[in-house]
Amino acid sequence: MFDRHSVPLVRTAMLAGVLAGGIACSTSSVPVPVPLRLALVTHAAFFSQETNQNPPLDPQVFVRDASAPAATGPQNIRHVAGIRNALLTDPSAAPIYNANGVLLDGFTLGSWLGARGDVTIVPAGTMGATIVVTMTGLRPRGVYSLFENHFDETPVGFTPLDGSGTSNTFTADAQGSARITVTAPHVPTHDNAVLLVYHSDGMARGTERGPIGVTAHHQLIVRIPQ
Question: Architecture of 30-52+112-223 per CATH?
């Protein structure tokens, strides 16, 4: 599956490899228009398209499957026996789990994949860029952080969207909505994406995302178009 959104994402021509929590690909650096508004898509859909997953799946959340052995998934995330990576065609009411088999409380697969949002990027000269991220369908009172992907690095790098990890973390409101404004240290290009990370343990880690698939889960993403 790709996401139900129609978004201005540009598929990369080649994949240099897939490592834990990232997709390595060929890119070029092109400044963004002023201002630029982009729709976020599920990370599961983005990942599945970029890496040609068949069937499409979420590499960082899991569903119960008594026949599934312990294994390592497509992002080198090791999971315990009795669960497997959630397929995007699994029942929407299915509970989801982390790689250790711990329930991601407050989510079904449908609600996890049902998050929505958009990103507006306004270059601010020598101050970098003002980035406004608006989201709905998050876990009510859930703890999240905004990160930036660096596809020009191998493996793909991740840094806090604010550059410092001091203002990129937030708590969704009681309805599962949030509107966050971040001052980024530079204007993102096609080498970058804006990434939403859910912290299932309720703890942010500043400049780090946390253990991917265990307490940190990529939920939404948008790559800057060429």
Answer: Sandwich (2.60)
